[in-house]
Records
---
Amino acid sequence: MRNRLRVLRAERALSQAALAQMLDVSRQTVNAIEVDKHDPSLTLAFKISQVFGQPIEAIFAGLEDTGLDDAGLDDEDGANGGQEP
């Protein structure tokens, strides 16, 4: 899941350690979320949302923001990958 955590943290001049302390998680957890190696729990996502004063959707992006449908295919290609039946 793509996210804007690193950008938001940098805009506020927060270190990973400082943000981690605010969220009651490890610095490694913050780093893993920033580099898309870990998706936060819903509880943690809400905490992050509160810290930055933004809705979860503004921080974290799912498939709907990538141009891919639920099957991971481009919307234009459809379910059969653009092939005729």
Note: Helices lie at 5-11, 16-23, 27-34, 42-52, 56-59.
---
Amino acid sequence: MSRYVCLVCGYVYDQKDGDPDSGTPPGTDFNALPEDWRCPECGADRGNFGQDGVPWSGGPEVATAWRAEDSPVEDRGQSKRTYGFEDHNYECACGYLYLPVEGEPRSGIPPETRFSDLPEDWVCPECGSPQEDFRVI
């Protein structure tokens, strides 16, 4: 049975378990999920999942290798993997949208700044929530 990992948050969709919260029965192949199915943890769409081709040796700690923190951070000179999800839009719990194509001029963030490249201390300009309160949309 196949397992697919959300490349944004590390959630694992396991075919043998399905997704009971969305009414997806056990045994449902990932490719048979509805087109509008989203990650139950972070809301990422199906395009943000990758098939797990390596046998898993444990629980959630293994999935952390796939998290957004693994995206490149050029300003720190680090060379890390990228999975192509960095240009997605993000929504704060208050409803504010961070659109990488626009940046955030009020905060001095230039256009085409990926969410993963925002300064660590950047917060929602509307409500002051930290980046952890944003979800991929």
Note: The longest strand covers residues 3-6.
